[in-house]
Design brief:
- The chain is an alpha/beta fold.
- It folds into 2 domains: about 90 residues, Rossmann fold; about 130 residues, Rossmann fold.
- Helix content is about 40%, strand content about 15%.
- The protein has a 6-stranded parallel beta sheet. Strands 3-2-4 form a 3-stranded parallel beta sheet, with helices on both faces.
- Strand 5, helix 7 and strand 6 form a beta-alpha-beta unit.
- Helix 2 packs across helix 10 and helix 6 packs parallel to helix 7.
- The longest helix has 23 residues.
- The protein starts with a strand and ends in an 8-residue tail after the last helix.
- The structure holds NADP nicotinamide-adenine-dinucleotide phosphate.
- The site of NADP nicotinamide-adenine-dinucleotide phosphate has 25 residues, from helix 10.
Length: about 300
């Protein structure tokens, strides 16, 4: 039976390190990390995420600023706000909560954030640094950075000789995850919807990372015995057993069967999810260290 990684516990440990790093920066350089979160419109799920991020930023001892803009905000108004925050010396991290309302064009907004303040790691400069293996110079996208914390805890920093398979090739997750595994010397396969015989590809993986968005797609017999399985998928499925109209969250991996085969496995919820916010805090404190000219800690 595979060991289950408690993502909430690991995330709490990262948060403790962030708090300690914040205190050190305040004591040595008189700098308080500042995180600005922008949300446009009234999507309830986005508001819940943003609320959690703002609360966690306060808990870490940051200056936490939330800009809540109405759904009818124009592209120019949003661009102006990002420009103002780019120029604000007390703000080290800027996050624009996605998705934006349909009338707004997200890409120019994300690309207008100064790369050194792009704590979501979505700017092409940061994506390019990850792609070229420059992991200490930029800011790594939070979810893959969080998944790598799990991988390092199981296998250490050097993945030489290990085969890793990432299912999914999105810019948000699959591509940076593959790049991070490659930078750690794993032999990496990036699978996607056009991959032939995906189960056979997965059976080759010592480290299997699923980021597809299809409930319980990865079956137990796709998993190499003893493999490390990181489930990034978040899928809401009906749960009539909880009552009429109720639902529950599941990952991309058929967890109960898969844990009989895997060596280590992450659950959904409570696996990768909590790490995303923790790594956002880690990126913000890193950005503040760099701005103060102090080498940042590693998380
Ligand atoms: N904080 C978190 O925990 C967190 C953060 C980010 C994402 N997620 C979750 O992770 C999942 C993926 O997110 P994403 O943004 O990367 O999604 P995405 O942009 O929709 O990408 C999904 C990827 O899965 C591939 N795919 C789709 N169907 C497939 C199939 N049948 N076989 C193999 N590959 C298939 C797609 O291939 P093609 O490229 O060929 O279409 C694509 O590369 C979602 O459930 C999302 O909610 C969680």
């Amino acid at each position: 039976m595979g060991e289950i990684i408690d993502g909430r516990q690991v995330a709490a440990e990262v948060i403790e390190s962030v708090k300690a790093a914040t205190s050190v920066l305040e004591a040595t350089a008189s700098v308080t990390p500042g995180l600005a979160v922008i949300i446009v419109g009234d999507d309830p799920a986005s508001h819940a995420y943003v609320g959690a991020k703002s609360r966690m930023a306060k808990e870490c001892g940051f200056k936490s600023v939330q800009h809540t803009l109405p759904a009818e905000t124009t592209q120019a108004e949003l661009a102006n706000l990002v420009e103002t925050l780019n120029g604000d010396q007390s703000i080290h991290g800027i996050l624009v909560q996605l998705p934006l309302p349909k009338h707004l064009n997200c890409d120019p907004i994300i690309q207008s954030i100064l790369p050194e303040k792009d704590v979501d790691g979505l700017h092409v400069v940061n994506a390019g640094k990850v792609a070229t293996g420059d992991l200490d110079g930029g800011l790594v996208s939070c979810t893959p950075a969080g998944a790598m914390v799990f991988v390092r805890r199981v296998h250490g920093d050097d993945l030489s000789g290990l085969n890793a398979v990432v299912i999914g090739r999105s810019n948000l997750f699959g591509k940076p995850m593959s790049a991070l595994l490659l930078a750690a010397n794993a032999t990496v396969t990036t699978a996607h919807s056009r991959t032939r015989d995906l189960p056979a590809v997965c059976r080759n993986a010592d480290i299997l990372v699923a980021a597809v968005g299809r409930a319980e797609m990865v079956k137990a017999d796709w998993i190499k015995p003893g493999a490390t399985v990181i489930d990034v998928g978040i899928n809401r499925v009906p749960a009539p057993e909880k009552g009429e109209g109720k639902s529950r969250l599941v990952g991309d991996v058929a967890f109960e069967d898969a844990r009989q085969v895997a060596g280590v496995i992450t659950p959904v919820p409570g696996g990768v999810g909590p790490m995303t916010i923790a790594m956002l805090m880690a990126n913000t404190v890193k950005a503040a260290y760099r701005k103060a000219g102090v080498p940042p800690p590693k998380f």
